[in-house]
Specification:
By secondary structure, the protein is α+β, with helices and mostly antiparallel strands. Helices cover 55% and strands 8% of the residues. The protein has 2 domains: 77 residues, Glutaredoxin, CATH 3.40.30.10; 114 residues, Glutathione S-transferase Yfyf (Class Pi), Chain A, domain 2 (Up-down Bundle), CATH 1.20.1050.10. The protein has a 4-stranded mixed sheet, with helices on one face. Strand 3 and strand 4 form a beta hairpin.
Amino acid sequence: MKLYGFFRSGTSHRLRIALNIKGMTYDQAAIDLRKEEHLGEAYRAVNPQQLVPALEVEGEVMVQSPAIIEWLEERYPHPSLLPAHPRERATVRAMAAVVGCDIHPVNNRRILEALRHRFDANDAAVNDWCATWIGAGFDAFEAMVDAHGLTGPFAFGANVTVADVYLVPQIESARRFKVDMGRWPRLQQIDEACGRLEAFQRAAPAAQPDAG
């Protein structure tokens, strides 16, 4: 496996976590978004959408982190990132979608670059934009954690699920945009619990070979 990604990319981060949990070994090909390497012809040949991550497996390339994580779950079902019961699986997927569908897409790099260059947003305005959507999403996520009523250190009880895989990189991003996490004590507890696991530690942006 070869993972094309960027150390600070939230989508690359979540995929690294999932790969680590599944016990996969993979090489990394760093695509430096700061230098716009993703917009070059070399990477266009890998992923025509020119976004990270992309995962090459046996000569074929998969794109879009939700699809790749679902493929991992189907291809390597143990340890599972989803509960056994269909209703609970839907709940966990919905929690992940709060991040994957509602927070991240409006805060990703190309949106923020458009705010800066097309609408003259300064850093304070960009941070305020990010905080708005992160705050709304985290309010919902924490309410969903409270609603299922399960005990345990993670987003859905005693076991790591895809909800944690999505949440932790988004918390990393929230801190980068100077969002005060004190508003969501339960999410902070989940983040701390995940941070004690090797799969999450090895996936952290600061631990990547292209960090810096």
